[in-house]
Design brief:
393 residues; hpI Integrase, Chain A; 8 strands
């Protein structure tokens, strides 16, 4: 080729001219090699993840950019490949999770955990949790919804959800993250509760005197106590002078099926309630120590016998707690006071699960609303509400 400065012939591979010394070619730059990695995917927790199949590694970071950067660094060899997680069998993961919860949940809850461990996921118990996929979990859901019970009957949607969430918590505790959005769980239906009307409550109260479980039924209906709280109460928990009862403990079964005393269900469940003279007089006649010493199911048997003998709807003992909350709603008692009285830690639990409307009160509310709008149509009510809003500062 010719030098563009002096026109002398020079070798084609020359960078400088051999005659005039001028630079006649630039060194070609190689293209920057881009390290390609898969597009990151956001998890339900908000973190971002990339699966590097070639490297056999999963990258998870809090932000998308951090996830991309770390994945590229691993693929380029700047970061060493992480060691594969240790093998943890599902049954061992559940055992570790249960052990971690001891002392923080009730013995009854621990017993429920162990029951789930023995009844469900039998085909996966000896499987490494890091090898369990969402598809396998979904198969277990289908199995429980068809032949999942001990007698081959379908499990309720609530039981299925409880089991799956328990298994997920156990795996999470040992480092396995499931994408729960890929798992379809059955819709839980609201539980049905029988709520007695005020007239039916009067019938029940008049039939109670002399019943061997009179005090226990009154404590559930009048004060809204749980069965575990009723069974743990002693005569010393009632203050005759100040007319109160202290709820500080509960009687539940442990993992071995033995009855044990523990603290209340939640911190909000520990409370002091004003106790009526009617109940205090009954308690005063009792011997010192625990008030109730019979079988746990005996209270329910006494209650249901009363209902049969007096032509009342069959109610469960826990239904009486629902009735108590519903009466509080009917009487217009503040949610705050009802929560303290009933020992609920969350308002939503009390409002949406325990407080039920009475048909007569609902009919009255419907009539009030209908009358208001009818009066609007007939011109009997002016636009007072609109004027108030316009005049408001």
């Amino acid at each position: 080729m010719k030098c563009k400065y002096c026109a002398h012939e020079i070798p084609d591979e020359s960078i400088f001219c051999l005659f005039c010394g001028e630079r006649v070619a630039r060194k070609k730059r190689g293209k920057k090699q881009e390290i390609k990695v898969p597009e990151p995917r956001q998890l339900p927790s908000g973190a971002w993840t990339i699966q590097l199949r070639k490297e056999g590694q999963s990258i998870t970071e809090n932000t998308r950019d951090a996830c991309l950067a770390r994945a590229r660094a691993v693929r380029a060899g700047f970061l060493q490949k992480e060691k594969a997680p240790p093998e943890v069998l599902l049954t061992d993961a559940i055992t570790k999770y249960i052990d971690s919860r001891k002392g923080t949940v009730s013995p009854a809850t621990i017993a429920t955990y162990k029951k789930k461990q023995s009844l469900y996921f039998k085909d996966l118990m000896q499987t490494n949790i890091f090898d369990i996929s969402e598809e396998q979990i979904q198969q277990e859901v289908t199995k429980m919804m068809t032949v999942g019970g001990s007698k081959g009957e379908p499990l309720s949607p609530k039981t299925v959800r409880d089991v799956i969430m328990f298994m997920n918590s156990s795996m999470q505790y040992c480092g396995k993250q499931l994408d729960m959005q890929k798992i379809s769980l059955p819709q839980v239906q609201s539980s049905l509760y029988t709520v007695l009307t005020p007239k039916e409550i009067i019938t029940l109260l008049k039939a109670l005197p002399g019943n061997p479980c009179e005090i226990q039924i009154l404590l559930a209906l009048w004060l809204g106590l749980r069965r575990s709280e009723i069974m743990a109460l002693a005569k010393e928990d009632f203050d005759q002078a100040h007319k109160t009862v202290s709820i500080t403990k509960a009687l539940v079964r442990d993992a071995d099926g033995e009855w044990v005393i523990k603290g209340t269900k939640t911190s909000k469940s520990a409370r002091m309630i004003s106790c009526p003279d009617y109940i205090l007089k009954l308690v005063e006649k009792c011997d010192a120590g625990t008030l109730y010493t019979n079988d746990a199911n005996y209270i329910l048997k006494c209650l249901q016998r009363l209902c049969r003998e007096n032509s009342l709807p069959q109610v469960r003992l826990h239904d009486l707690r629902h009735i108590n909350a519903s009466i509080g709603l009917m009487l217009g008692i503040s949610d705050k006071y009802m929560m303290e009285r009933g020992g609920w830690s969350a308002k939503d639990t009390m409002v949406y699960r325990y407080q039920h409307t009475y048909s007569e009160e609902k009919a009255a509310a419907d009539a009030t609303m209908n009358t208001y709008f009818e009066n609007l149509l007939n011109g009997k009510i002016t636009n007072e509400i609109t004027n108030e809003k316009q005049e408001a500062p």
